[in-house]
Every structure is written in C-alpha cells, then in structure tokens.
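FORM 12-B: Structure-to-Sequence Request
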C-alpha cells in the first residue's frame, strides 16, 4: 500500500513537471512568433501592394498642399513654373523629387476598405496633399495623414477611393515642404579658403576690417614669415599672424544661403538692405588644371610638362541687413534682386573679428640681411650698430659676401651682435589701448631706427614711451594704439649697453 502511494505521488509530480514544460514552451513559442512578425513588419518584409503608378515623363502639372504651401506648378519646356507667380524662381529638384516619389505607390497593407472616420487616421485634414496631372488628363492623388502608432509608416489615401493604406514613412517625409522651400536658392560659390587673398568688412556702425595678402610688401609691414597685413580698422597697416590667418579665411569661404524670402528686388528696406548694416567683400582665385594635348618642356629645368594650371581671379560680395526672429540675417548678393537668409553663426563669424588677436605681436621684424645700420637712443645715450659687408673670393674661387659687425665703431662678435638684434626684433605688442592715448610732449625711453638698404631702401622706426609701472607706449610713427611690456624693453636697453662692454 505504501509503495502504491509512493508510486502515485511520483506519477503526479512527473505529470505536473511535464505540464509546466508544455505551458512554458507554449508561452515561449507565442512570444517568438510575435517577435518574428514584428521584426518582419518593421523591416518591411511583408508583401507590399502597388496601388498606383504613373509615367513621370508624362506629368504636365503638380498641385501640392502642405504646411503653409498651396502651389500649382506647370511644366514649360523643361522648367517647372509657378502658375500663380510665373516670375518666381522654383526649386526644380524638389518638384522632380515629388514626381519621382509617386512614380509607383506601394502600400504595406490596406487598413480599411471604406473608412467611415478619416479623422482616426489624420486624413480628414491631411498633412500633405499631392495631385499630379498627366498629358492625357489622368491624375494621381496622394493624401498623407498621421504617422502610424504601431508599425512604422503613415496613413494615406490614394486616388480618392476612400481606402486607407499604410505606406512607408518616406512618403510622408518626401512631401514635407513649406511654401518658402519651393523658391530656388542660388548655388553658393566654390571657394577654397586658402585661395582667399583679400577680405573686407565694412560696417555702418562699428569698426571696419580689411586683410590683404601683401605679396609685394606695398605697406612695408610684411615679410616672408608674415605676408598678410591688416589695413582696417587702422589707417596704417599691421602685419597679421600667419598662423591665425587660415582660421579667418575659413570664415569667409562659405556663403550658404538658407532660403529666398524675396525675389522681386522692390523692397530691400523691408529687410534692412536699403541701408545695410554691413557688407562683406572677398577676392580669391580659382585654379584650373588641364592636360596638354602636346607636352611642353620647362625652359628652366628641361622637364616635360604634361599638365598646365591656370589661375582665374574671382570676387564675391554680400550686403547684410536685419535679423529674423530666430536671429538669422537677411542678405543680398551684389548684383542680385533676391533676398536670402544666412545663419546667424555664419554671419557673426564674418562680422566679429578680434583684430588685435589676429595681429602679429612682433612690432618690427626687418630681415637682418637687408639691414646695414641700426641707430638706438636709449635714455639719452646714442648707440650705432653696423653690419659692413664686402665681397670676397673663397678657397674654391667663388665670390661670397663677408659680414663684419660693429657697435659704436668697435668690432664685436657676430654671435653677440645677433643676440642683441634678436632681442630687439622680439619686442612685442602686449596689450591694446582701449581708449585714445595722448603722448604729446612725452620723451621716449628708447628709439630704434633700422636702416634698410638695397631695393625698397627705407628706415623703420619704433619708439617706446613711458606710461606706467608695467607698460611702455609703442610709437611707430602713426596713432599710438598699443602697449609693450616694460620689462622686455628694459632688457633690450641692457643688451645694447652690454654689447659695447
């Protein structure tokens, strides 16, 4: 009896265990099938049904309604024209995109054969409406409603048959245009930042800015190291720091218009362009490389030339007006009637230039090879540093230039002379005077005059005037604008004095 009860208990436990396994398998299999169906649906693996097709080459008109747009476009020749505004420049690609979108309309599934409540799908007031009319007068109509709350996609009506379809979301995103989007925006110029060699920013209020690649050293402020010169906001030029110029150039290499808000050219004042707040003008060059049909020979090297590169000078100018509510600016390209918008960040980079930060802080840096004499007046004591050059014949029979170095008529070591020279040309602008500074009647602590010989013979002069315990004023013969570190200038005076001892 006890054995029978034990056997029955084991049987009952076994049956319960099997039943638990079966229930678990049923639940797991159900979830697996649902997951598989969902994955299949989400990846678009369900069979789609083509509900409408057109021959895109036969489309003669397009009517689009969406957002704030209600526009009818007709094809004239190969150009799409606004029926209501024939003079309006139309974004041709957007029209082609819409037509190509409905070349074949595929539905993922039919949700309702005859929907009684279109509001349930957002189709009582569609988000977008598109009707294309073909040359044979047949039409295709597509209305886009809400996004699907379950499977990704959107609800739609096709050809007024009252069937509600589930379409891919691409139909919704492909018909998401505002009225402004349909006005064409001109292509921006292809400008390589490194090819910009002139930048000018003129402001109605505030400081102007001008930066020139002074290759011929017309302003006598540049060198091989610092070929760029800042000519505005100052009436005289100051060398720019070449390492920072490339960043500035990049700010003026992209004129990316966002929208065309007016193409009539009749009311510039409305956008602040009757009397612009600023203008930006650049000069740059484009390079064109072509393969020569018949190779040429380089007369200097004798090497064969298979390609020829030419350079074409270009220029570009925009006027900047008021700002929109979101901060973007209204702009107009010179010679154009169109008013465009440009991003606030892009315009601000063009208008907000820290000229002192861009400047080379070196006050005066003549090449020692072009200097033959330096006159220094330090606290009333005069010093003359000279470099005397003569042509000699070396051991190989070739002529070369030999330089000798003097201070107050006494010959000095080359290294000692050049160490002092290096200290002098290392003098830097340390700070900018925020207000106008008057130095009338103030006697310089030290004046240095570099005498440049040969081509472009001239004298470069810099004086240092007392200001306070930390700074000297820097006078280069123009308006006094900058300070130099007092300690650095005093070190120059000590070095010059030490050269003769």
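FORM 12-B RESPONSE
SEQUENCE OUT:
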């Amino acid at each position: 009896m006890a054995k029978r009860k034990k056997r029955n208990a084991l049987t009952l436990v076994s049956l319960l265990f099997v039943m638990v396994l079966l229930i678990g398998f049923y639940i797991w299999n159900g979830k697996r099938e649902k997951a598989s169906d969902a994955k299949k649906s989400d990846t678009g693996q369900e069979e789609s049904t083509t509900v409408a097709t057109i021959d895109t080459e036969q489309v003669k008109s397009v009517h689009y309604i969406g957002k704030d747009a209600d526009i009818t476009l007709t094809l004239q020749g190969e150009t799409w024209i606004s029926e209501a505004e024939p003079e309006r420049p139309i974004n041709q690609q957007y029209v082609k995109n819409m037509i190509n979108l409905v070349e074949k309309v595929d539905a993922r599934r039919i949700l309702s054969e005859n929907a009684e409540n279109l509001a349930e799908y957002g189709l009582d007031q569609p988000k977008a409406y598109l009707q294309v009319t073909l040359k044979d007068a047949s039409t295709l109509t597509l209305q886009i409603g809400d996004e699907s709350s379950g499977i990704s996609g959107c609800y739609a009506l096709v050809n007024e048959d009252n069937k509600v379809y589930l379409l891919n979301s691409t139909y919704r995103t492909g018909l998401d245009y505002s009225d402004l989007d349909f006005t064409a925006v001109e292509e921006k110029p292809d400008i390589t930042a490194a090819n910009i060699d002139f930048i000018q920013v003129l402001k109605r209020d505030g400081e102007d800015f001008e930066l020139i690649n002074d290759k011929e050293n017309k302003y006598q402020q540049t060198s091989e190291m610092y070929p760029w010169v800042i000519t505005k906001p100052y009436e005289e030029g100051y060398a720019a720091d070449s390492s920072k110029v490339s960043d500035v150039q990049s700010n003026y290499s992209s004129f990316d218009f966002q929208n065309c808000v007016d193409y009539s050219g009749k009311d510039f004042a409305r956008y602040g362009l009757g009397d612009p707040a600023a203008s930006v003008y650049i000069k740059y060059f484009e390079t064109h490389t072509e393969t020569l049909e018949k190779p040429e020979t380089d007369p200097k090297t004798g090497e064969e030339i298979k390609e020829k590169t030419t350079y074409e000078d270009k220029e570009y100018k925009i006027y900047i007006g008021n700002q929109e509510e979101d901060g973007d600016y209204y702009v107009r390209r010179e010679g154009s009637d169109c008013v465009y918008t440009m991003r606030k960040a892009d315009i601000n980079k063009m208008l907000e230039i820290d000229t002192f930060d861009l400047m080379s802080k070196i006050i005066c840096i003549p090449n020692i090879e072009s200097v033959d004499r330096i006159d220094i007046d330090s606290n009333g004591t005069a010093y003359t540093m000279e470099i005397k050059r003569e042509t000699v014949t070396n051991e190989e029979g070739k002529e070369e230039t030999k330089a000798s170095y003097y201070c107050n008529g006494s010959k000095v070591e080359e290294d000692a002379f050049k160490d002092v020279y290096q200290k002098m040309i290392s003098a830097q602008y340390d700070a900018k005077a925020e207000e106008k500074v008057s130095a009338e009647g103030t006697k310089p602590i030290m004046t240095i005059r570099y005498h440049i010989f040969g081509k472009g013979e001239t004298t470069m002069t810099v004086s240092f005037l007392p200001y306070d315990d930390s700074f000297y004023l820097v006078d280069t013969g123009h308006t006094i604008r900058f300070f130099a570190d007092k300690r650095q200038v005093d070190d120059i005076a000590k070095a010059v004095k030490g050269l003769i001892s």
